[in-house]
TrEMBL record:
This is Lycopene beta-cyclase. One of its GO terms (molecular function) is isomerase activity. Pfam families: Lycopene_cycl. InterPro entries: FAD/NAD-bd_sf. Its EC number is 5.5.1.19. It comes from the Bacteria. Gene3D superfamilies: FAD/NAD(P)-binding domain. Keywords: Isomerase.
Length: 401
């Protein structure tokens, strides 16, 4: 049985980021850690499909060399067609394809990172070490021990929650015969799409050149669409809303991201932790996760280097999760017009301030000012309703009748 200092289950954004960053750390009394990276074989159902990650950050970042594109200006279009475009400097909105990220990380893995192709069947916690039980592609069993185990596999189901919506989408990478896009500006939300009775829908356009772009249709609702539903929505958006003609679809992507106010525990045992989507890295109100994963991994690596228990933090502040919970419930109840809410939020606030809030680094006073620009009555009613539900869910104390 092989022993490691750190064992990572899963090689998505979280697992690969930890392998990449953790390999260069120095642990007290150990030095460079021996790291195992365990992932299922290609084609396995548990292996993530190719996808695109978007995030924003100030200035240069560690993944700039493998970005597909980046933009210094963003626009939002209201249901009426009124547009709002702003520069977001010194921030950049960045697009990274999972394939490019994976190839970059794998090509630079340090010698102290040991990939292992196997499907994990169980993780056994222990006082000093945890044991990972797995099956190799030929069906033979393998057991690996580690001082710390980080399970980055996506959860099979979201946790119990007051409200859970799904961010579900399909996108087309398109190429047009003539110039059709502005490569200097990303269209973050186009709310001219037909709106569901509850939730919200929108399109967005990430231009790669004047003739190439990722065009996506997205909904925040309880139920996903079928194939014909997504294709019909994209045909309507590209043809009727954007007015694109004579384009070729060169590739596509599709996904479902849970948007939930449930609690994600990041510790699963004395030696076992949950990381990434399983550890609450997804921002409930937006579905963005890449920046949260980077913060989570940075915290874990610092703890390892300082000899502390490396429990991953949930990378979103409690007050932000509470605000997200109110928004999700207001959308799900139909009390809030989602398209009007997002259009007003971006039109009446500095776009950089909104991005800072969505990334969890805004000041509380600025958050209050932004809140005043949103529909006060439906949000306030929903906040009171949420508070009452929270009181009902609390266990009764000893001696209560």
């Amino acid at each position: 049985m092989r022993r490691f200092d750190v064992l990572i289950v899963g090689a998505g954004a979280a697992g690969l980021t930890l392998a990449h960053t953790g390999a260069g750390s120095v642990l007290p009394g150990i030095g460079a850690p021996e790291i195992a990276l365990v992932e299922p074989p290609p084609g396995a159902a548990s292996r993530a499909e190719e996808r695109t990650w978007c995030f924003w950050e100030h200035g240069a970042g560690p993944w700039d060399g493998v970005l597909t594109a980046s933009w210094r200006a963003l626009s939002v279009v209201a249901p009426s067609g009124a547009g709002c475009e702003q520069a977001i400097t010194p921030r950049s909105y960045k697009m990274l394809r999972s394939r490019d990220f994976e190839e970059h990380v794998r090509a630079g893995l340090a010698p102290n990172v040991h990939p292992c192709t196997a499907t994990v069947t169980a993780i056994t916690d222990g006082a000093d070490r945890a044991t990972v039980h797995a099956l190799r592609p030929d069906g033979s069993p393998v057991e690996l021990e580690a001082r710390w185990v980080f399970d980055s596999r996506p959860p099979s189901a979201p946790p119990d929650a007051r409200t859970t919506l799904l961010q579900h989408f399909r996108g087309w990478f398109v190429r047009t015969a003539d110039d059709a896009f502005d490569p200097g500006t990303a269209l973050l939300m186009d709310l001219r799409t037909p709106q569901p009775p509850r939730g919200v829908s929108f399109g967005y356009v990430l231009p790669l050149s004047r003739r190439e772009a990722l065009v996506e249709y997205t909904e925040f609702t309880r139920e996903v669409l079928d194939d014909s539903g997504y294709d019909a929505a994209l045909r309507h958006y590209t043809g009727q809303v954007l007015g694109l003609e004579g384009f070729t679809v060169t590739a596509s992507e599709q996904g479902v991201i849970p948007m939930t106010d449930g609690c994600f525990p990041t510790r699963a045992g004395r030696r076992v932790f949950l990381l990434g989507a399983a550890g609450g890295a997804i921002r409930p109100s937006t579905g963005y996760a890449f920046s949260g994963i980077q913060r989570q991994v940075s915290s874990v690596v610092r703890a390892l280097e300082e000899g502390r228990v490396p429990t991953p933090p949930v990378p979103h502040r409690r007050r932000h999760r509470a605000m997200d919970s109110v928004l999700l419930r207001a959308l799900d109840s139909g009390r809030l017009d989602g398209a009007a809410f997002f259009a007003r939020l971006f039109a009446e606030n500095d776009m950089g301030d909104v991005l800072d809030f969505l990334d969890g680094c805004s000041a509380f006073g600025r958050e209050l000012a932004m809140g005043a620009t949103t529909p006060v009555v439906p949000m306030s009613v929903t906040a009171v309703e949420r508070a009452l539900l929270s009181l009902r869910r609390r266990p009764r104390g000893r001696g209560a009748s």
